[in-house]
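At your convenience, could you comment on the folded chain following this short note?
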Amino acid sequence: MSMRMSEISYAYGSVMALDDVSFELAPGVTALLGVNGAGKSTLLSVGAGLLAPRTGTAMVSSRSLFARRERKEALRSIAFMPQQVTFPSVLTARDVVAYSGWLKGMSGGRADRRARECLVAVGLEEKMDRKCADLSGGMIRRVALAQALVSEPEVLLLDEPSTGLDPEQRRGMVELIRGLPGTVLMSSHVVEDVADLAETVLILDEGRLVFNGTMDQLVSGLPDNGRRSPVEAGFLRAIGRKAGA
């Protein structure tokens, strides 16, 4: 299972958020990098089928995300964890995750079993029957990750998954994502997340894709500079800024 985007453009009014972006994802973890406003969240929203591009095509294997006859099956293969999440305060964590599974076509019993499994996987086994109103921000982030995992997606899109997590929770998240099958595209500002997880890297700058390659290619040939990590230095080089600045 792979995701392929070809010549994707998207605009907010006269502002081009994505400009002729093309890439193909292979199984494994790909990091999506860029400064604020570079187009990362827009690209993930297109990949999740939430925003229809102005031009271009988005495919999951051989199915189009935006063709009427193929869209439903394509969407079944994808799950998205957005950067900002809110859940009904009166529902429990298990209710939220199970409902997502049901929406993906699971039976009620299967959705409930998967919800329990995913909440255990994200470290919320003791909180799964607590109402969302009683959960901390970090717990809500982990509910969102469980919600994305419940349908066992073949393509998983994560927008800043470690936001709001403490160091121990972040380590657990990294280990969980590392062990997932299928294809993961992860946006993150946390250099450690990228270094620990990503095999390949996409970099956006002002809506354009300026780097598409392996982690080794990103960091190759950089001078030793203790002030910046190799990933950060490679990122700055890709967007045309001095790595030592």
